[in-house]
Design goal:
The structure holds two protein chains of two kinds. Chain A has helices spanning about 20-30, 35-50, 65-70, 100-105, 125-135, 155-170, 205-210, and strands at about 5-15, 75-80, 85-90, 110-120, 140-145, 175-180, 225, 230, 245-250, 255, 260-265, 270-275, 280, 285, 290-295, 305-310, 315-325, 335-340, 345-360, 365, 375-390, 400-405, 410-419. Chain A is an alpha+beta fold. In chain A, the strands form four sheets. In chain A, strands 7, 8, 9, 11, 12, 13, 15 and 16 form an eight-stranded antiparallel β-sheet that branches. In chain A, strands 2-3-1-4-5-6 form a six-stranded mixed β-sheet, sandwiched between helices. The mean pLDDT of chain A is about 90. Chain B has helices at about 5-25, 35-50, 70-80, 90-95, 115-125, 190-200, 265-270, 290-295; strands at about 30, 60-65, 85-90, 130, 150, 180, 210-220, 220-225, 240-245, 255. Chain B starts with 6 loop residues before the first helix and ends with a helix. The chains are: A alpha+beta, B alpha/beta. The interface between A and B is large, with 80 and 66 residues.
Chain lengths: ~425, ~300
C-alpha cells in the first residue's frame, strides 16, 4: 500500500442504467478495502432509511443530491483505489443516451474501458454505442464484463453467446485488445475473488486483469512533439538570461543535444538543457512536464511546437475530424464559427462541411442526415484561422484532439478526433 | 530503457501542467492557502512548475480567527522562505464590518462565514482564478469537480451543468465578473499526498504529528479544546496523544488519537485506517449533502 513505484491506470466504466455499473465499482472499492468505515456506515444508513434490501453500494459513487434522489448517475464521478501493484482512477460515466458526452469525456484519458453487459439481455444498442465510442476515442484496452451471471445460473452457454455476438460486431471497429470476463458484481464473483461457480472460465478475475494489463506503451514514444505551454523568464539577478520553454511532452523521447525544429518558424537549433520536476535531466518522455532551454534564443511562445527536424507533424489550416457534439441548446451548423483549442493553441474555426452523421448503433454513415444534435457524432471538415501542427488521433491522442468552444456562452460544445 | 512514470510522478506532472495552464490562461490567479497539507503540496508543486522564476501568483489565506496558532506560524515562515506574496481575508474583520454574522450555540462555527469572506477577497483582488487544494477522493460532492471549475458572477457552482474536460484541453473562457476555481491536485488521494511529501522531504506543521493536547469528545469526534468552542456541561476535557489529519478552523477540525510522530508513521497509519480524513470534520456532518450545499454557494 505504501509503495511509491506503482503505476497509474485510468479506466472508464460504461453500462446501461440497470447493468449494475455502480454496484461493480462499489464492489471493487469494497473488496479492495478502499471503502472507509464511515463511508460505509453512511450509505448503510441511507439504504436502511430508504427501505432498501442490503447495502446499496451505488450510493458510493452517486454523490450529488439529485443523483441520490433519482437513483441515477448524472455526471462523471471520479473514484480512486489502489492495490500494492497499481493505483486506479475510475471515471464513472452515466449510461443513459442523453449523457453520451460524459462517456466521451471519461474515455478521453482512459487506458482501459469496462463495458458492462447484462447476461440476461446480451449485447444491446447501448453496448454497441459504448464499444463504438471506446473505439473512436481509441481506448487501448476493452474489457467486456458480462454481469449478473448469477441470474443465468453462471451458464457458459449464455456467456459464449454474448462473447460471439460482441466479437462479430467488434470486427467492424478499430479495437485491438478485447477481453471478456463473466462476473456478478452484486455477489462478487470474478471481480476481486475467483468464482467457484464458473469453473469453465479460465481467464483472469477483473482485478487481476486491471493490475496486470500492459499499459506502458499506451503513449507515443516515437514522434517527438513538444507544444510550448508557458515561457519561464525569472528576471532575477541569478537567472538573468534564463529563458525556459515549459510544457508537457506530448510524444516521443527528447534528449539533451537533440537537433530540433521550431514550429511555425522552421528554425533549427539544439536542446541545451531539460529541467524536470527534480532538476536537470538527460532525457524526457510523455507525460512528463518539463522546461526546455535551447542552444540559441528564438522568438518562441505558447502554441508553438518543438519537434525533431526529420519527423514533423502536418502543418495545416484544414482539418477533418470525427466530432461529438455536446451542446443541448443548439445543433451543429454548417458555416458555424467557434473558438478551437488544440494542444496549447487557441484559434478560431469555421465548419466548412458536415460530411455525414455516424449512426452510433450500426456504424452506418448517414450521408443525407446533416442534423447534428447533442450526443451525435459526425465527420466534419473545419478551416482554422492559422496553421495547426497536427497528427492523426490514431497516432497521438494529444496532438490529434481538439475541442470547440461556443464564443457566446463560453461552453465546450464539441470534441473532435483528427482523422 | 523503460519509459514509465510512477503514479506519484505522473500525478506531479499532471498538477504542474494544470498550474502552468492557469498562469497562461488567466490574468490574475491566486492560490488559496489554508496551511493544511494539501495547500502546502500546492505551493510545493507551484514552486516546481515555475522554477527558477517565482510563483507568479499570491497566496490567499482566509483567516477564520479561529486557527490553530501553529498554522499561522507555519504560513508566515513559508511565505518568507519563498518570497511569495500573502493576502489575508479576515473573518474577524468581516464580522466587525457587518458582512457576516457570527453563529451562536454549541456547534457554532465560522466555517460557513468563510464563504462570504472568500468571495469578498476574490472580488476585491479582482482574481479571475482561485487555485485550491481540494481532492476528489475527499468527499462525494468533490468527486464531481472539474480541474477548471466555472463559477458565475455570484461565485456559485452548478454541478449539473459543468463543462466537459477532455484530454488535456482546459477551457478557461468566462465573462466579466465570473471566475474559476482550479483544482490541480484533483486526482491525488490522501495517501498519495503523504507519500509525495515524504519522498520530497517537505517540512510540515507540527499539528500533523502526534502531540499531547487537551481534547473532548462531541458526536463521536475528538475536538481540541480552545476558547472558541462553548462546551456542554457533560463534555469532559482530558489530555490525549493526538494529531490532525486535516487542518481547518479549530471549531470544526477533529483530531485523532495517534502516536504517529514521523511522516512514515503517518503513511503507515493512513494505509491501515478505516476512517476517511474528513470523518472528523463536524462541518461535513451537518447533513448528508453538507459539502454540496456549501460548494454551490461558493465554498471551496
Amino acid at each position: 500500500m505504501t509503495n511509491n513505484n506503482t503505476e497509474l491506470l485510468r479506466f472508464t466504466t460504461a453500462g446501461s442504467v440497470d447493468d449494475g455499473k455502480s454496484t461493480l465499482i462499489g464492489r471493487l472499492l469494497y473488496d479492495s478495502k478502499s471503502i472507509y468505515q464511515d463511508q460505509y456506515d453512511q450509505i448503510k444508513d441511507t439504504s436502511e432509511r430508504r427501505g432498501e434490501e442490503g447495502v446499496n453500494l451505488a450510493l458510493l459513487t452517486d454523490g450529488l443530491k439529485s443523483e441520490r434522489e433519482q437513483g441515477i448517475t448524472i455526471d462523471v464521478a471520479y473514484r480512486y483505489f489502489s492495490t500494492p501493484k497499481r493505483k486506479f482512477i475510475i471515471a464513472d460515466t452515466p449510461g443513459h443516451t442523453q449523457y453520451t458526452r460524459n462517456m466521451v469525456t471519461g474515455a478521453s484519458t482512459a487506458n482501459v474501458a469496462l463495458i458492462l453487459v447484462d447476461a440476461r439481455h446480451g449485447v444491446v444498442d447501448q453496448t454497441r454505442r459504448h464499444a463504438i465510442i471506446a473505439s473512436l476515442l481509441q481506448i487501448p484496452h476493452i474489457v467486456v464484463c458480462i454481469n449478473k451471471m448469477d441470474l443465468v445460473d453462471f451458464s457458459q452457454e449464455a456467456y459464449d453467446k454474448i462473447q460471439e455476438s460482441f466479437e462479430s460486431f467488434a470486427a467492424k471497429l478499430d479495437v485491438k485488445d478485447v477481453h471478456f470476463i463473466p462476473i456478478s458484481a452484486l455477489k462478487g464473483d470474478n471481480v476481486v475473488n475467483r468464482s467457484e461457480k464458473t469453473s469453465w472460465y479460465e481467464g483472469p478475475t477483473l482485478m487481476y486483469y486491471l493490475e496486470n494489463v500492459h499499459i506502458a506503451s499506451d503513449h507515443n514514444f516515437i514522434d517527438q512533439r513538444f507544444p510550448v505551454q508557458f515561457v519561464i523568464r525569472p528576471y532575477s539577478d541569478e537567472f538573468h538570461d534564463f529563458r525556459g520553454y515549459a510544457g508537457r511532452l506530448a510524444g516521443g523521447v527528447m534528449k539533451k543535444g537533440d537537433e530540433v525544429t521550431l514550429l511555425p518558424s522552421g528554425f533549427t537549433t539544439k536542446i541545451k538543457k531539460i529541467h524536470g520536476a527534480d532538476g536537470e535531466q538527460e532525457e524526457a518522455f510523455p507525460p512528463q512536464s518539463i522546461t526546455v532551454e535551447l542552444e540559441e534564443d528564438f522568438d518562441l511562445s505558447r502554441g508553438d511546437m518543438i519537434v525533431r527536424a526529420n519527423n514533423q507533424p502536418e502543418i495545416t489550416q484544414d482539418i477533418d475530424v470525427m466530432m461529438c457534439w455536446f451542446d443541448n441548446t443548439k445543433p451543429l451548423k454548417q458555416k458555424g464559427k467557434f473558438a478551437l483549442q488544440h494542444t496549447t493553441q487557441n484559434v478560431r474555426c469555421v465548419v466548412k462541411e458536415i460530411r455525414y452523421k455516424l449512426d452510433i448503433n450500426t456504424l452506418h454513415r448517414l450521408q443525407d442526415d446533416k442534423n447534428i444534435n447533442m450526443n451525435d457524432i459526425a465527420r466534419v471538415s473545419l478551416r482554422v484561422t492559422k496553421p495547426l501542427f497536427i497528427d492523426s488521433y490514431r497516432q497521438n491522442r494529444i496532438t490529434g484532439s481538439i475541442i470547440l468552444v461556443d464564443e457566446a456562452s463560453n461552453n465546450t460544445v464539441a470534441a473532435g478526433m483528427i482523422i | 530503457m523503460d519509459y514509465n512514470l510512477s503514479h506519484i510522478k505522473e500525478l506531479e506532472a499532471e498538477s504542474i501542467y494544470i498550474m502552468r495552464e492557469v498562469a497562461a490562461q488567466f490574468e490574475r490567479p491566486a492560490l488559496m492557502f489554508s496551511g493544511g497539507k494539501d495547500s502546502i503540496l500546492m505551493v510545493h508543486l507551484a514552486h516546481k512548475a515555475f522554477y527558477p522564476a517565482k510563483i507568479p501568483f499570491p497566496l490567499l489565506h482566509v483567516d477564520t480567527g479561529h486557527n490553530f496558532p501553529e498554522t499561522i506560524e507555519y504560513r508566515d515562515s513559508l511565505v518568507k522562505k519563498l518570497g511569495a506574496k500573502l493576502i489575508v481575508g479576515s473573518v474577524d474583520e468581516a464580522i466587525e464590518s457587518g458582512l457576516v454574522t457570527e453563529e451562536k450555540g454549541f456547534n457554532a462555527s465560522r466555517n460557513m462565514l468563510q464563504i462570504a469572506v472568500l468571495l469578498d477577497a476574490l472580488e476585491k483582488g479582482k482574481y479571475d482564478a482561485a487555485l485550491g487544494g481540494a481532492r476528489r477522493d475527499e468527499e462525494k460532492a468533490r468527486a464531481k469537480e472539474r480541474f477548471f471549475s466555472h463559477r458565475d458572477e455570484f461565485g456559485q457552482w452548478d454541478p449539473k451543468n459543468q463543462r466537459p474536460e477532455l484530454w488535456n484541453l482546459f477551457n478557461g473562457r468566462k465573462n466579466m465578473g465570473e471566475h474559476f476555481r482550479i483544482f490541480p491536485i484533483s486526482n491525488w488521494t490522501e495517501l498519495d499526498v503523504w507519500q509525495y511529501l515524504a519522498a520530497e522531504k517537505v517540512e510540515l506543521p507540527s499539528l500533523y504529528f502526534a502531540h499531547e493536547r487537551e481534547v473532548f469528545e462531541r458526536e463521536g469526534a475528538l475536538l481540541a479544546d480552545c476558547e472558541y468552542i462553548e462546551k456542554k456541561p457533560d463534555e469532559v476535557i482530558k489530555k490525549e496523544m493526538v494529531r490532525c489529519r486535516t487542518i481547518g478552523d479549530m471549531t470544526c477540525t477533529g483530531v485523532w488519537r495517534s502516536t504517529a510522530s514521523t511522516v512514515e508513521d503517518i503513511i503507515e497509519e493512513i494505509a491501515t485506517t478505516r476512517m476517511t480524513e474528513r470523518g472528523g470534520r463536524t462541518d461535513d456532518k451537518r447533513s448528508e449533502t453538507a459539502m454540496e450545499d456549501r460548494k454551490k454557494e461558493g465554498y471551496f
